[in-house]
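Page 37, continued from 36.
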């Protein structure tokens, strides 16, 4: 038993010397991240829109075009086999509000829930761009507390963080 405790202590010491402490404690407390993180962390329910937007369905020709574009790459070959082999859950190609290709793999379906990880950043940055274009946000260089003043009231450091800092994941927040 002492040997096991010693080994665990040695591994923990090595991890703390190799990786940032916050990362090590996150792995110890929450384990490594995966697509099912949503089951382990707090969440908030967001109601559906009253009239949601629906993309138009593509045709068999659209799907064939997408397949051809990807399968011309010798590293991919058969697109479905490639996506399944890379442990992809969903692969969707949308152009001009039309779904050209939509497939799910490895036991996942359209209504499966998974953690989006960095995919969310792409959507958020696109939405910020739209909000700037429509005049809801003046600039990506605005302090984020301009739009969320309660954060600036809670901690003055938030008044120095710009929307651009958040989009670039360079806020300086520990």
């Amino acid at each position: 038993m002492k040997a096991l405790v010693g080994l665990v202590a040695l591994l923990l010491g090595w991890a703390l010397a190799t990786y940032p402490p916050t990362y090590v404690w996150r792995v110890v407390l929450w384990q490594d991240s995966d697509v099912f993180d949503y089951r382990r962390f707090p969440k908030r329910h967001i109601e559906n829109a009253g009239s949601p937007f629906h993309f138009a369905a593509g045709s068999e020709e659209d799907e064939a075009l997408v397949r051809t574009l990807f399968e011309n790459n010798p590293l991919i070959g058969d697109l479905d086999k490639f996506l399944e082999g890379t442990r992809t859950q969903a692969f969707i190609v949308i152009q001009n509000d039309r779904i050209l290709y939509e497939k799910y793999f490895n036991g996942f379906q359209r209504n499966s829930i998974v953690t989006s990880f960095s995919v969310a950043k792409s959507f958020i940055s696109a939405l910020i761009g739209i909000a700037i274009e429509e005049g809801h946000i003046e600039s990506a260089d605005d302090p984020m507390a301009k739009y969320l003043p309660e954060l600036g009231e809670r901690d003055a450091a938030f008044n120095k963080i710009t929307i651009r800092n958040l989009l670039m994941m360079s806020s300086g927040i520990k």
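The chain has three domains: 2-32, 56-104, 119-167. Flag for discussion at group meeting. DSSP finds seven helices and three strands in the chain.
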